[in-house]
Structure formats: structure tokens, C-alpha cells
Amino acid sequence: MNDTNTMHAALRGNATTIAIETDADEIETALAQWWHDNTRDLPWRFGRTTPWGVLVSEVMSQQTQMGRVVPYWTAWMERWPDAAALAEAPKSDVITAWGRLGYPRRALRLRECAHVVACDYADELPRTYDELLALPGIGDYTASAVLSFAFGERIAVIDTNIRRVLSRAFVGVESFGGAASPAERALAKRLLPDDGFAKCRRFDRPSVVWNQSVMELGATVCTAKSPLCDACPIAAQCAFLRNGRPGLGERRTRPRQRFQGTDRQVRGLVLNALRGLPDGETTLDRGSVEKLWKDHVQLDKCIASLDEDGLIEILPGGGVRLPD
């Protein structure tokens, strides 16, 4: 087994230690400076929103580009600024406001989460990992991100962008997606800066800046297919670049699903038709539904799945509407 395969095995297996090929302190310093000079000015950053606002931004950003999220997040927070407000919102309004963010089930899960926060936590987000993880629709990444970005807690935040940057910069190999391995989690925790002597605002703490800057680098510079190595602030320390960028461009473990003709497209057509009804109209009759998609077998399957997910209601006669 060659050196690259050995590193892949360590990174993707159950190893708890990984040979780091470069200087973590140099990278931390360079990334912190780059972050302060170049980060995107998103409205939920730098302490300008509540912890609830941070959670909303993280849920909206799942599998969705940040640039698309900003207008939806802004309108959402103006309308429902806290969990209590969202908990009282009609489901139809929540689904409509979600618009074209994709995966609309997230909208209803966020509303369920708001209900729990409003009723069980007096409209304040809990501040422990286990309590956040127990909220509807909240997984490991979102719980960790809220603790770091909203509360300034020292915790490793692990998403696809962070895993890719850490794998490339420190181990010198490509990250191929899939679920995070124990070794990748161990690497992220091992590299997390110490906040022990930091006397600064929560969003300026070293661990928070590290999480944000590594994620931002992965989203804007160290991208999956076409990394901008010439513009990278840590190019001089990057083990991946030094190794000749092995494996760059290889297929990820889970190829992206085509969209055209999929159930996801059909579901989106139904929801968009309901969102676009004229004021005062709430129902799409069966004839209008059938015009949305020629394959009525697939159409009916998608309508049934939308109903099962609680995103629509099927009416007598085959019409549909958004839930109350």
C-alpha cells in the first residue's frame, strides 16, 4: 500500500491518530487573518442576530448555497423573529415562506423545533449539546454550529467543507464525502484551538474563528472540484497542494442526483403551484394538478408523499391545498 492509500485508510477508517504533515499554528494564524479580511458579510454573523436566528440560518443553509439563503432568512426573521412567533404560524404560511430553498420538510421540522423551544425552554435555545440534539430536525452538525457560532462554546463543527479543508491541508489527501469517520472527527477535535486565555467577544474566540474560517475557505476557495489554490491563504502550508493534489476531481462517494424528471422535481412543481395561487385561493383542483406533470402515476406518488410528509392535504375529488 502506498503512502496516499495509507493516509486514506487512516482518514476514513477507525484510526484515532493521523499524521499531520504541516504546521497547525501557521494555518490557524493565516486563516484567522484571511477570515477577518475576506469573510462574506452574512446577516447572522458577528453577533448581529439571536441564537435562534443562528439556528434558522443553519437549517436553511443545509444543502443550499448561502447566497440563496440570505433573502429568505431576512424575510423569515422579520416575520417570525423568535421561536414563539414561528410556533404559532400556520403551516401553509411556513411552507410558502420557505419558497425555493429546497427540501421543504425542513420548514415544518423547524416549526416543530420552534414549538419545543417556545414551550419547554421559555423561548430561549438550550445551551447544551444533548438538549440541542434532542430538538426536532437538529443533528450533530447544527447542534455543534449553534454552540460555536451562537454561544461561543469550544466544540468541533464538522461539515463537508470543513472535512475537505482539514483532509487536504493537514493530511494531504482528498476527502471523498460520505459520513464523517471517527478519524475525521478525531482530527477536527485535535486541531481545534484552545480558548482558555481568550478574553474577547464570543464570535471572536479562537475556536469560533477557526470553525468559521475553515468552513468559509471550503465554501469559497477550497472547493470540491475547482479549488482556487492560487488565491488560498494557506497554499504555502497545504499538504494536498504539496503532494500534487492527489485524487482531485474524482467522483464523490455519493454522486449528485440528477434533478430533471425526479420525484423531487415533481414535488417541487406541486408546491410551487400552491404557493403561486392568487390571493384568496387556497386549492388546486384535480384538473390543474394533472396539468403539472404528464406521468400521472409518478404525479400521484409524489402527491401521496407530500401528504405523508405533512406538506399538503389531499381533498375529496383529488384537489390539494397547503395544510392549515
From TrEMBL:
CDD domains: ENDO3c. InterPro entries: DNA_glycosylase, Endonuclease3_FeS-loop_motif, Endouclease-III_FeS-bd_BS, HhH-GPD_domain, HhH_base_excis_C, HhH_motif, MIG/MutY. GO terms for molecular function: 4 iron, 4 sulfur cluster binding; 8-oxo-7,8-dihydroguanine DNA N-glycosylase activity; adenine/guanine mispair binding; lyase activity; metal ion binding; oxidized purine DNA binding; purine-specific mismatch base pair DNA N-glycosylase activity. Keywords: 4Fe-4S, DNA damage, DNA repair, Glycosidase, Hydrolase, Iron, Iron-sulfur, Lyase, Metal-binding. It catalyses: Hydrolyzes free adenine bases from 7,8-dihydro-8-oxoguanine:adenine mismatched double-stranded DNA, leaving an apurinic site. PANTHER family: ADENINE DNA GLYCOSYLASE (PTHR42944). GO terms for biological process: base-excision repair; mismatch repair. Its cofactor is [4Fe-4S] cluster. It comes from Bifidobacterium ruminantium. Residues 60-220 form the HhH-GPD domain. Belongs to the Nth/MutY family. It comes from the Bacteria. This is Adenine DNA glycosylase. Its EC number is 3.2.2.31. Signal peptide: none annotated.
